[in-house]
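Work Package 4 report. The design task specified in the project plan requires that, given a folded chain encoded as structure tokens, an amino acid be chosen for each position. We show below one input record used in the internal validation round.
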């Protein structure tokens, strides 16, 4: 039973990672914009992301509760052995990296020149594509992160924002728009055309603009590595939180 439930937990984790970001009721871009600009509710109460070590102790008297605790303890012990957890880095090149423990995103901040402030808000894995394997046998799952890039200048009351996709080896611009810094109205701005549907020179111009500010394929690789580690941290924290509740 313990082994079966452990497999179910890992299967559920994989299903969450691979869920599509498309929704019949609204576009992925609007969902992403609303999530980053209006979501303030964390998944769990913030706690340290260090790997819990206390998985022993007496079991609850209820057989059902005891079985759940036993399963959770087994999974907490298994996860770091299966995929070791590392201390998240706090810097990437010129950017400061701010983790958001128990939340589904991180924030990065940097500067460009004397008057530009750059802020990136990055979700955990929220989409994927299927690509044929090199040997032609089956398909590989390529995970995607969504990134909101905000560039502000001291002499302007508007920010230039980019809705982007970070793939393991590429950085893709989806939309570009201007947003007034005072967001009290909470109105969705006009996002402009889908950059991916414009001509290649147009797409390259925006990629080069961001690339000059350190937002490029190398950043994508860093973000995927960071989020894989964060995904493991959050899973172990979630398992520990549920275990602690059932043990009470």
């Amino acid at each position: 039973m313990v082994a079966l439930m452990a497999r179910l937990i890992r299967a559920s984790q994989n299903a969450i990672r691979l869920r599509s970001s498309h929704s019949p009721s609204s576009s992925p871009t609007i969902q992403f914009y609303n999530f980053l600009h209006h979501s303030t509710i964390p998944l769990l109460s913030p706690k340290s992301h260090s790997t819990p070590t206390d998985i022993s102790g007496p079991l609850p008297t209820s057989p059902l509760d005891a079985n759940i605790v036993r399963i959770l303890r087994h999974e907490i012990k298994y996860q770091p052995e299966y995929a070791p957890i590392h201390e998240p880095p706090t810097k990437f090149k010129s950017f400061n990296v701010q983790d958001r423990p128990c939340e589904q995103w991180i924030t990065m901040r940097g500067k460009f020149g004397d008057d530009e402030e750059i802020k990136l808000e990055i979700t955990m894995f929220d989409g994927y594509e299927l690509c044929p394997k090199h040997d032609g046998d089956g398909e590989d799952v390529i995970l995607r992160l969504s990134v909101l890039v905000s560039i502000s200048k001291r002499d302007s009351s508007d920010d230039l924002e980019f809705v982007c996709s970070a793939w393991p080896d590429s950085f893709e611009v989806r939309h570009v728009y201007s947003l007034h810094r005072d967001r009290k109205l909470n109105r969705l701005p006009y996002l402009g055309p889908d950059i991916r549907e414009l001509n290649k020179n147009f797409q390259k111009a925006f990629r080069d603009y961001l690339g000059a500010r350190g937002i490029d394929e190398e950043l994508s690789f860093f973000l995927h590595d960071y989020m894989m580690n964060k995904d493991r941290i959050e899973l172990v924290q979630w398992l520990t939180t549920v275990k602690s509740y059932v043990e009470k």
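The beta strands are 91-92, 95-99, 105-112, 116-123, 127-132, 139-153, 158-167, 170-180. Validation will be extended to a larger panel in the next phase.
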